[in-house]
Amino acid sequence: MKNRIIFFVSDRTAITAETLGNTLMTQFESVKQERHVIPFIDTEKRALEVRDRINKVSANSEERPIVFSTFTDDKLREIISLSDCLFYDLFNDYITRMEADLSQESSHVAGKSHGLVDRNSYESRIRAVNYALVNDDGARLDHYEMADVILVGVSRTGKTPTSLYLALQYGIFPANFPITDGDLDNTQLPKAIKPFKDKLFGLTIAADQLSRIREERRPGSPYASLRTCQREISQVEEIFQLEKVPYLNVTSISIEEIAAQIRLTRDLDDKQF
Q1: How far is CA 10 from CA 126, 137, 200, in A?
Q2: Torsion (CA) 146, 151, 153, 156 in degrees, nearest 10
Q3: 205 and 158 in contact (C-beta within 8 Å)?
Q4: pLDDT of the residue at 120
Q5: What is the H or E stretch that residue 201 is in?
Q6: 226-242 and 207-217 helices cross at what angle (nearest 10)?
Q7: What is the CATH number of domain 119-265?
Q8: Comparing 2-102 with 119-265, is the CATH topology the same?
Q9: Is 136 left (phi over 0), alpha (psi -120 to 50) or beta?
Q10: How far apart, in whole angstroms, are the C-alpha atoms of residue 246 and residue 151?
């Protein structure tokens, strides 16, 4: 397995550089990666320091490091690009072409992709996060009419992190509700969420992975045993199928992919705006 050192560099947060760079690198599974994120390189002095750092790494490595950048400042980009590296700028190649296609110069303002451009959208996402926190794990049952989606599943299937991602990223109002042993024995949806069946989305997971996750929380407990997890997963999937609740096996997919499936299934595509 090849080992490559990767830098994500930007004059702002480097979130875009890291996100797009990581996405591209997923296509090269045989490359072992050592990642370094370097944000806020907004002066020539800092850019020169980063260039020296990259050159030092290159001199001590068998392979040249890979650099993903999202600079809006041409001078800073040029400084970093002169490093002894494989340089991929994720903005300039597209901005130059778009300026020609749109017959308009870009603003070249740093931080636009993560700045507070739309205050209404920002405030909506904050309200959504607050809603997700208040309605986490079945804590409240009296505000479900406000929910855009209600995530359901047995304990530790990722309902809470998925809810928070939907709220923070898209302004979606998510609640989540745990399916307990009593619900499983009845082989039907709990009374509290049955009236909101059209908002439900189920999460399930491989029993062995669920067991490992629960083992970290309650080592050696019946709750974490493989047999318990197998039984609960089998029963909850039976409920989803009987009640015609759409559901997704989240064993090997990311929160981003889970959120995309939920938005598509529950027709929440336009919620962000």
Answers
A1: 26, 38, 40
A2: -110
A3: yes
A4: 73
A5: strand 200-204
A6: 120
A7: 3.40.50.300
A8: yes
A9: beta
A10: 10
Tokens of 238: 């039976």
For 113-144, b/e burial (b = at least 16 CB within 10 A) is eeeeeeeeeeebbeebbebbeebbebeeeeeb
CA 97 to chain centre: 29
Q: How far apart are the C-alpha atoms of 164 and 176, rounded to whole Å? A: 10
Say yes or no to pLDDT of 98 above 90: no
Gap between the Cα atoms of 172 and 110, Å rounded: 27
Q: In the structure, what pLDDT confidence band is assigned to residue 111 with cuts at 50, 70 and 90?
A: low
Tokens 């490093």 sit on residue: 83
Where do the domains of the chain lie?
A: 2-102, 119-265
- The SS3 call for residue 247 is strand
Tell me: the pLDDT tens digits for 192-215?
999 999 999 999 999 999 999 999
Q: Report pLDDT for 72.
A: 87
Query: What is the architecture, at CATH level 2, of domain 2-102?
Result: 3-Layer(aba) Sandwich (3.40)
pLDDT digits (tens, 9 = 90+) for 85-95: 999 998 887 88
Residues in a beta bridge with 175: 150
Distance CA 227, CA 29 (A): 34
Strands 247-249 and 200-204 come out as parallel
* Tokens representing residue 137 in the block: 């794990």
State the residue for tokens 């490595």.
Answer: 61
Show the 3-state SS of 136-159: HHHCCCCCHHHCCEEEEECCCCCH
**Euclidean distance between CA atoms 26 and 49, whole angstroms:** 29
Tokens of 171: 């302004």
Closest CA to 67 of 3, 5, 4, 7: 7
Task: Look at the chain and count its residues.
Answer: 273
